[in-house]
Amino acid sequence: MAKQPKAARPLTHAQVWAALDRLAERAGLSPSGLAKQSGLDPTTFNKSKRVTGDGRERWPSTESLSKALAASNASMETFVQLLGDGPRGGQSVPLLGFAQAGAGGYFDDSGFPAGKGWDEVALPATSDEHAYALEIEGDSMKPAYREGDIIVVSPATAIRRGDRVVVRTTGGEVMVKELKRRTGKVLELASLNPEHPDRMLDAEEVAWIARVVWASQ
Q: Could you report the per-residue pLDDT of 179-193, keeping only the tens digit for each?
């Protein structure tokens, strides 16, 4: 008696959303960056939008998927391949838009991510359990970083002259610069964009400083 072919397993919500995450990663974007590039609301592909208010799993719409494929120059065949990809060798870290980083409630006194409002993104593994990601907004950091780029920040990684760092002042200003010099009294920072001036901060003006260890470029 001939064996009956096995029935194809139906796609799961997790598979489809994971493929969308991989599509964004393939384009060097976060899920929200892919949504913006697709002309969609930036939160369209966020994890909070993958379930309804009553806890039911939600599928991405065919329209949003079509726009995401067009924005990332990918075909449906590519997306099907991404559906079958195995898990990435990375980890999920908290993700925040750069413009939000200066607002209160997102970091504790040590510069570690805290509070609500963070999204999540899968990125290369890091040994720092307090590592987090920031999504670049605007063009103030060109040519080093473009809008939609993701940078991973590690508060536990040692900082040396020449490193790119994220600095938050006691006044709530957050900036990404290159460390020129650091003493017990001052912090000298070089701008990544030649159109913006370098900065010199008194030590008491610095709430925290952390090293940028990876960028999606």
A: 999 999 999 999 999
Nearest to 211 by CA among 161, 157, 151: 157
Nearest residue to 136 via CA among 181, 170, 166, 169: 166
**3-state DSSP assignment of residue 17:** helix
DSSP 102: G
Q: How far, in Å, CA of 98 to CA of 133, rounded?
A: 9
- Is this structure's pTM higher than 0.85? no
Q: Where are the domains of the chain?
A: 13-85, 91-215
* CATH superfamily label, 13-85: lambda repressor-like DNA-binding domains (1.10.260.40)
Instruction: Report residue 118 as tokens.
Output: 């963070």
Which residues fall within 8 angstroms of residue 131, CB to CB, at 6 or more apart? 93, 152, 153, 154, 155, 156, 213
Q: What is the DSSP letter of 115?
A: S
What are phi and psi for residue 202, nearest 5 degrees?
Answer: -70, 150
Residue in 18, 24, 48 with CA at minimum distance from that of residue 216 = 24
Q: Which residue has the higher pLDDT, 115 or 172?
A: 172
**CATH architecture of the domain with residue range 91-215:** Ribbon (2.10)
